[in-house]
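Feature request disguised as a bug report, sorry. It would help if multi-protein outputs had a clear separator. Right now it looks like this:
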Amino acid sequence: MEGVSERCDFADDGEIAVNMVRKSLESYLGEWDSKGRPIKGFLYSLLVLDYSMPNLEGPEVAQKVTEMYEEYRMKLVEKDPSLFDQEIELLPLPTMVCLTAFQDTSYQDTAKKHGLSEFLVKPVALDTLKRLTREYSTM
């Protein structure tokens, strides 16, 4: 998607998306310098998830990602207790946006309950995707 972001990764289904987030967390937390900054890796700042994806739907992916971040924050504090109260800042949850063809408010309610912050009905304009990447990009 030209002009959308410096870096975009794509997943064909929900399980792949969850695994991609897990790998980014593991890499990010793998090695730290003497000042407590990660040496390699990255964290996703934005996840754009289709409501209906194979294997895991968008709301399920959002729930699993949220749970995963909580787990990795606990691991971070266990590894270095001095980071207590900084773990959310050090591992900020990515903003999660839902794309769907469904306009029914029950889908929106389900998405929001699972941590999806925005709900966009398809077709989504390229300008909207550009706005999202500018707004939520940490690069």
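(second protein starts here, but nothing in the output says so)
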Amino acid sequence: MANLLTTFRLVLAFPFAVLMAAGGAFEATLAALALGAAIATDLLDGPVARRRGTASTAGGAFDHAADFLFVVGGLAGGAIRGVFAWILPVLVAAAFAQYVIDSYWIHRRRALRPSRLGRYNGILYFAPLGGDILARLGLTALRPLVTAVVWLLVASTVASMGQRLSLSARSRKELTARPPKEEQTDARVEQDEEVVLHEPERDHLARPLGKEHDPQHDRH
């Protein structure tokens, strides 16, 4: 059921992009319906998956991918109309690519590795889409605010990418400074062998000088 909700949002991505690229009020109304459905499915698919016990890393990745395609499609449609700067959808695509590469290839994780700033950005990417639709439906006073939000998201997306790059570099530096597991294992083996080899020597030194201990004398 959760994947069905996510799939519905994914199917809406292309029609929504086309509606955002169009300039009429009718298209804006349809875009508002598509945006509302996308937000509703995004809010529901996670809780539904957890309630049904079907939550998984693959489902989480599918959810993120659907959000990404829906948002980038809508921002690109708005950029075609000239209401959004093209740099925002380009940066969102670059940030998502970095997100995937950093999680699966650099850190070798089985799930996406989120960041707090990236999560906030993912939520706020819907704001200029909704603002533009409202402006097309008559609330033209929102247009300057939408433009300001777009440039704010450009700055926060760059900051998020820089933060992820910095954390990745720090993690790689800590991993290279740490000795490999093989070396640690060899060191522990050498220490154990040293302890074993020294035990007979300690027993020998602990014996009294003179005759060596004869077990036959213990019987009398």
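Even a blank line would do. Unrelated, but nice: The domain at 2-177 is CATH 1.20.120.1760 (Four Helix Bundle (Hemerythrin (Met), subunit A)).
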